[in-house]
Amino acid sequence: MQTVEQTMKDTAGKAWAKRPLIISGPCSAETEEQVLQTAQRLAATGKVDILRAGIWKPRTKPGMFEGIGVKGLPWLLQAKKQTGLPTTVEVATGKQVQDALNFDVDVLWIGARTTVNPFSVQEVADALRGVDVPVLIKNPINPDLELWTGAVERVARSGIKQIGLIHRGFSSYGNTEFRNAPMWHLAIEMKRRNPELLLINDPSHICGRRDILMDVAQKAIDLDFDGLMIESHIDPDNAWSDAKQQVTPEKLAEMLDNIKWRHETAEEKEFITALEKLREQINHLDDELIQLLGQRMKIADKIGEYKKNNNVTILQTSRWNQILDRAFKKGDALGLSREFITKYFDAVHMESINHQNKIMNS
Ligand code: PEP
Ligand code: MN
After folding, report:
1. Residue 269 falls within a domain, yes or no?
2. Based on the domain organization, do 103 and 196 belong to the same domain?
């Protein structure tokens, strides 16, 4: 006779092995009612493999909802009993690991704000020694693959066999389309280095908003991720945390229905991944070039102001020849043709002059 615990362990093991692996549930456990209802509605879709909920929430600012704490763990256990869904929660300390295990949480995950800190990761890893539980490790907040790898190594050294990665994007300063820039090439590189590890994408924390979740989820599947973690709430607008990015269980099911699940041959997959990686590198370099051009024009504006205040003409031919000469020399060394350098600098120069003109005539 199998014990109930053993049966649940088998269920969790099966869920872990399923592809695509779909993890969903609220950002935070809020009330018993909310956890149970979310779990039931997610289970009813038949599309979710593991139920997630944040119990302890590392928040950017104090005073935000910091999680319901241990009190929420029995709710999750109850949700598991009612739906048969294995559960996963975020752990950041040794005590949280103990508490989660005491309430039969099936999978643990380490959050982005924890992965950045080797002291915390080590504390979690130490608490995991001798325990047989799958652990998912989110990428660190900053784009640093060594730090992510370090967390994987710490957890692996504590004896954990089932380790997975969650790509949830990287923080960058200023407003972008995303809450956390995906920087896909980093996830792809992490997978290349660790082909044996499960790799899940978390569109919710990448997007920070509902309207682009589907695009990011589809992209992840196109890039051959092993699954998705998407936040779901019975009343998203009134969620106590991450309200803008959560979707109802039914909306989640609709999204999952609309994703094109690709079935390429191994060679096709390899080709697409390699090509995507190179294109992503190009995109990054282009982004940087545009940033730099923007900075260059800001300096041109300053020069414009100086010229205006000192009655100097905009075009000074000797200076222009000097710029081109320098560029030819550098370009020669890098294999850039003089024809290209000339065209490129002409365009940049025209833009500079337009900027200066605006300043001088203002
Ligand atoms: C979360 O999953 O709710 C969470 C806090 O995510 P992250 O660690 O990616 O910010
Ligand atoms: Mn969240």
Report:
1. no
2. yes
Query: 111 CB under 6 A from ligand 1?
Result: yes
Residue 208: CB within 6 Å of ligand 1? Answer: no
190 and 311 housed in the same domain: no
Domain boundary, last residue among 235, 261, 287: 261
| pLDDT for the residue 185 | 87
Distance 349 CA to ligand 1 centre (A): 45
Would you say residue 266 lies in a domain?
no
Substitution site in 24, 55, 90 for ligand 1 pocket (most atoms within 8 Å of beta carbon): 90
pLDDT-derived band at 30, boundaries 50, 70, 90 = very high
Is residue 160 assigned to a domain? Answer: yes
DSSP state of 159: T
**CB distance 54 to ligand 1 below 6 Å:** yes
Q: How far is the CA of 66 from the centre of ligand 2 (A)?
A: 11
In the numeric block, the tokens 């991720």 are attached to 225
CA distances in angstroms from 342 to 265, 294, 331, 339, listed in the order given: 45, 20, 10, 5
Rounded-to-integer distance, Cα 249 and Cα 218, Å: 18
The closest of 160, 165, 170, 238 to 208, measured between CA atoms, is: 170
Domain CATH for 13: 3.20.20.70
Dihedral sign of CA atoms 252, 253, 254, 258 in order: positive
What are the pLDDT digits (tens) for 298-339? 998 998 898 889 888 777 788 888 999 999 999 999 999 999
Query: pTM for this structure?
Result: 0.80
Residue 268 lies in a domain: no
* Inter-CA distances, 204 with 50, 81, 176, 294, 326, Å: 16, 26, 15, 31, 47
- Looking at the structure, tell me whether residues 249 and 284 fall in a common domain: no
Identify whether residues 291 and 256 lie together within a single domain.
no
Lowest mean pLDDT among 22-31, 95-104, 195-204, 269-278: 269-278
Domain range for 241 is 4-261
The per-residue pLDDT for range 235-248, each reduced to its tens digit, is 999 999 999 999 99
Domain count, the chain: 2
